[in-house]
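Quick illustration, no need to memorize.
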Amino acid sequence: MKKSSIILSLLAAGAVVFSSCKENKEEAQTQGEKPAIEKGSIVYFNLDRVLDEYDMANEKRSEVETKIASIEKEVMRRQKSLEDAAKDFQNKINKGLMTTAAANEKSRKLQQQEQAYNQFAQQKQQEIMEEQQVMMNQLADAIKTFMESYNEEKGYAMILSNTAGVPVIVGDPALDITDDVIAGLNAEYIELKKSEK
């Protein structure tokens, strides 16, 4: 009899605690507040949103796009120059304005110019890929470094990054720390820029 009354008392106390926790969570949600995430929780952030809203990512992307546009402009200029020379050569051949020997020499020079252009274009394509890779490495390093110090403070068991629904297909929005991550990254970046001045 005593055991059953103790068990009933414990169950009643547990129900009160559970109900209180549930009411606090519901109250926070109705007031628009996000309930606090407990230490040891598994949380996630949306990497796509971070890359879209992180000031450093936007600045780096803009810098790389400017460099790429400049590289592409130079490649296109050289390509047009080569095409113009080839058209001029073909026009002269069609009109019979060149001897066979001169035509052969000009054809050889055009082939050399085309090979030089192809090497130049490949080199510039490699530069574009390197610029993009360096940018991604810089962003990945900045985000990883921030997340390590962020988690020292928060004490989560695991932080997952979610991009295009992978690996978190569905998650409790209360465990989504994206807004907090973006705010922290941008605040840290503002401080870094101030210290560089």
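The CA atoms of residues 1 and 102 lie 116 Å apart.
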